[in-house]
Amino acid sequence: MKEKDTTNVNAYYKPGDKDMCMAQEFDDTQYLVEEQALQPLERGDTPVFYAMLLFFQAFGDAYFDDQFHFVMKDDPVLGEGSFGQTSRFCVERLYIMHKLLAELENDGWKTKIQFKAYKRALIGVSNLEYFDKMAKVFLERFRFVFDKHLRPCWTSDSILHYILGGNQVLANEFARWLVDYKRMSSDDEEPYQFTNQIIDMGAIHYRTTAQKNVRINVEECMNYLTADADPAAIMQSDFVKSHWDLIEEMGTFEYIEDTISLFDDTTWGHVDFEPLLEAVWNEIAIHACHQQRCENYVQLAKTSVGEVRRTLRAIILSTIIRPFHQWAKQVFAERNPDKPPPRRVEGAARGELLVKFMRKFSNKLERAKRLAEERNINIKAIQQMLVNQSMKTSAHHKNKNMNVLLEALTVGKRNITKSEEAAGYIDKPVIMSDGITFNFLSMNRSCKNCNSAWTKRNTMWKKKEFHYCESEGCCLAAVHAELKERNIKLSKKDLTFKRIGQKRHEIRAHVAKEVMVDEGKGQHGFDIKDVKDFVPKAKLMESIKQMHLDWLNEKKGLST
Questions:
Q1: What share of the chain is helix, strand, coil (3-state, %, to 5)?
Q2: What is the per-residue pLDDT for 380?
Q3: CA distance 488 to 441
Q4: What is the C-alpha to C-alpha distance for residues 44 and 50, in angstroms, rounded to an integer?
Q5: Is the pTM of this model over 0.85?
Q6: Distance of alpha carbon 482 from alpha carbon 435, whole angstroms
Q7: Which of 20, 118, 259, 552 suits a disulfide with 54, CB 3.0-4.6 Å?
Q8: How far apart are CA 122 and CA 116, in angstroms?
Q9: Residue 7: how many CB atoms within 10 A of its CB?
Q10: Cβ distance 340 to 7 under 8 Å?
Q11: How many CB atoms lie within 10 A of CB 407?
């Protein structure tokens, strides 16, 4: 089974036909800045928000937009309207996303031409150190989320075999890896050596925004994808066990030139791979990598539109409107082979084709009614399920909520739920404000002398001695210094006997007063617990900022 022509499919996502776009070089003129024509910038000339927008625009051009375009693409075999059913390409796409992200990390973004306007704007910002830190923190957090959510999904032992439905070179490498594991003796501890070869990933992975083909090293790609994989668990999966004979046949070809493409039967040789190909469609491609096609119907849920009308609209869209558009485009393309296919057929041709389509649809409808009568299917009961409002899910939830409300009204005053309360005040994240979170300040991060004095105070409470400490890196000493710097007066007894948590609360209350009164951010629903961190004022508190940053990074799984 060969892949169908994807010219029209790709034209939906990038201008021109596929061959032109595949050969087109990256157009960097859109990012060039004529330095001589621009006025030199001085500190303070660039608005902060404008500089941030330039950074995110550059990040989109250099990385994110290409990933977004990929998930919008249709499967090249299934054709138009199959976006979201490209899971067979997602395992290999994971490595491409990792590779492109790695090119931006460790200040690699500074070498990308897409960031040229942003780098020039940095000359005019007031706080250059803040923006350098912003880029580093943003990419670290992006990598953290990528490694936490995306990588474990597509490299899991239950999904990694999806690669069999993707690029034929990688599919054969994966099959060889499994065959090698199957035949490996217990004494053989040498890892499997993947083929060291550079390959082009084809039109499905074409970078629309960057206007570049994607080329990868097979060995690096497979090592990344199988780094945490357990071949024993993969061999026990239902898919691999059910089709092991054909996977083994695919993995026994010794040379890279002899790779088998499941979608090109001329490469199959004497083996019939049709059952494995059908399994790719029925068990891999059917897995949606996103649900945007379902989300399209959410637009039907508009104001003052009931569930019955939404249901009927959804049926009309899925059975008439959208099939008509695809059919009409196909007919128009057959009538006008020299013209590019339109996004939608308009004008007189639309009216003519709609009449023909509805005639065919009416014939199918009458045939379905006759079959329903022959099989004793109650059509009226189905109609009632569609149009009877009392049988809708919304009616069930409405009645349930009304009963809860009536019960609350009869009991007395209704309790305000958490979702109805004011959100509290908003400030910068602690890592960007160079602040310190209150729950970081604890005795186990205080110096040995302070801990010893605290233990002695508990065992010999009659000796009311206050231990004075000025050690850098000691949380208790930092708290005492911060209390003094903020002019928060505590008696010697309180300084001696109050726990560090109680002293933290004194600082929190002082910060909350600044937020509510001095900064005018007080509002209904504000709670002192909303204050999670503060910007230190005392030098001793400043001394523990690096400890605090290391602690935050450790919680997020990042290395400093």
A1: 60, 0, 35
A2: 85
A3: 17
A4: 12
A5: no
A6: 13
A7: 118
A8: 10
A9: 14
A10: no
A11: 10
Better-predicted residue by pLDDT, 208 or 283? 283
Read off the pLDDT of residues 316-359 as tens digits, 9 standing for 90 and up: 887 888 889 888 988 988 888 888 878 888 888 889 999 999 99
Tokens of 253: 């070809």
Residue 308's nearest CA partner among 381, 385, 365, 402 is 385
User: SS3 for 380-436, per residue?
Assistant: HHHHHHHHCHHHCHHHHHHHHHHHHHHHHHHHCCCCCCHHHCCCCCCCCCHHHHCCE
Amino acid identity at 376:
N
Amino acid at 478: A
Q: What is the pLDDT of residue 2?
A: 37
What is the per-residue pLDDT for 470? Answer: 83
Ramachandran area for residue 522 (φ above 0: left; ψ -120 to 50: alpha; else beta): beta
pLDDT in tens, 407-434: 777 776 656 666 655 554 445 677 777 7
196 alpha carbon, distance to own chain's centre: 30
Helix (H) or strand (E) holding 533: strand 533-534
Q: What is the CA radius of gyration of the chain?
A: 32
Q: Which of 516, 523, 525, 515 is nearest to 418 (CA)?
A: 525
The candidate with the shortest Cα–Cα distance to 238, out of 175, 163, 157, 153, is: 157
Q: Give the length of the chain.
A: 560
Q: What is the pLDDT of residues 500-558, one digit of tens each?
A: 888 888 888 888 887 766 555 555 556 777 788 888 988 888 888 888 888 888 877 66
Which residues have CB under 8 Å from 446's CB, separation 6+? 454, 474, 475, 476, 477, 500
Using a CB cutoff of 8 Å and minimum separation of 24, what contacts does 421-428 make? 421/525, 422/523, 422/524, 422/525, 422/526, 423/525, 424/523, 424/525, 424/526, 424/527, 424/530, 425/515, 425/521, 425/523, 425/526, 425/530, 427/515
Q: Is the pLDDT reported for residue 255 higher than 60? A: no
Q: Which residue has the higher pLDDT, 421 or 495?
A: 495
Could you count the other beta carbons within 10 Å of the beta carbon of residue 106? 10
Query: Residue written as tokens 């089974």?
Result: 1
The larger pLDDT score, comparing residue 95 to residue 15, is at 95
Q: How far apart are CA 93 and CA 75, in angstroms?
A: 14
Distance between CA atoms of residues 73 and 62, nearest Å: 19
- The whole-angstrom separation of Cα 409 and Cα 407 is 5
Per-residue confidence (pLDDT) for residue 11, from 0 to 100:
31
Residue 523 in tokens: 């509002």
